[in-house]
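Summary for the steering committee. One of the milestones for this cycle was to obtain a three-dimensional model of the protein with tryptophan bound, which we needed before selecting residues for the alanine scan. The sequence and ligand used are listed below.
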Amino acid sequence: MSKKVLLSGVQPSGKPHIGNYFGAMKQFVDLQDSYDSYIFIADYHALHSLKNKKEMKENIINVLLDYLAIGLDPKKVTLFKQSDISEHTELAWVFDTITTMPYLMRAHAFKDAEAKNKEIDVGTFNYPMLMAADILLYSPDIVPVGQDQKQHVEIARDTAEKFNRIFGDTFKLPEPMIIKNMEIVPGLDGRKMSKSYNNIIPLFAEYDEVKKCVMAIVTDSSGGVPKNVYAIHKLFRSEDELKKIYKEKEGKYKELKEILVEDIEKFVAPLREKRKEFSKDIPKALEILKAGSAKAKVIASKKMEEVRENIGVSL
Ligand code: AMP
Ligand code: TRP
């Protein structure tokens, strides 16, 4: 029996931290053996917020290196770039014509932007249509996303249903797969780890940087378990082991932090090394992306031909 199809997109948006890794990136590696996986770099989505040629190029290459370094295997995963496949934007237009403004005005991302009184560009408003096209071109069974993207996958599903109703059966209805048992990874201050809070541990940090971050974890002075240290530590060691260590070293925050530094280093060092290896040969990494895009193009163009046929524009 052929494997089920998984598809997801990642925005090229700067250096990942360990919250991104445990919250999102790692799942693609865990799932690559069980699914025929398609993971793409959503560069046209990123254009909403990133309007700088140099930064765009750097970010695309960086996200590619990040995903290769964490262990996405190009033999199992088709890694591609959204802007290489013009069918994404083409299909988004077709979806624009069957979707109403009031429907898109209910999307969280739009409502958030509106609440912040931002001058919203048309692309941001239409974002869910491009995302629907991203998904539906590849007929995936599942679309793993974080909680914040669930509504977008539901919009893709609605859009597929609507299109099928108007033009006949064309698209498979996708299911969102919400990354479960996923706790929010806390940052150095106990709040959600996030670049905007300045409380992160970068995933590919060098030893000294990890150490500096860990030493800056906020501890309370009650003398018990330093909960912010423990919360990060449990990503790297079993709770059984940790309970023993934290009992033995009760109140000795500095020593506990030193153990955490070593545990993070043990985990991160191989990923960091792998990333360095890949970054020595960028053309080779880009070849992987190019081959992925060529494979994705075949699938997307076939689906798009079916769309053109069903709407009546191919003669
Ligand atoms: P962002 O960096 O906010 O664009 O998020 C990219 C992905 O990482 C999304 O799927 C988020 O849900 C996930 N993510 C970001 N921060 C955390 C965190 N502190 N804990 C768990 N997951 C996170
Ligand atoms: N919107 C997603 C995010 O911001 C990225 C994305 C774009 C995506 N297209 C997709 C995710 C299609 C899953 C499927 O994280």
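Key point for the committee: Strands lie at 4-10, 35-41, 77-81, 142-145, 175-178.
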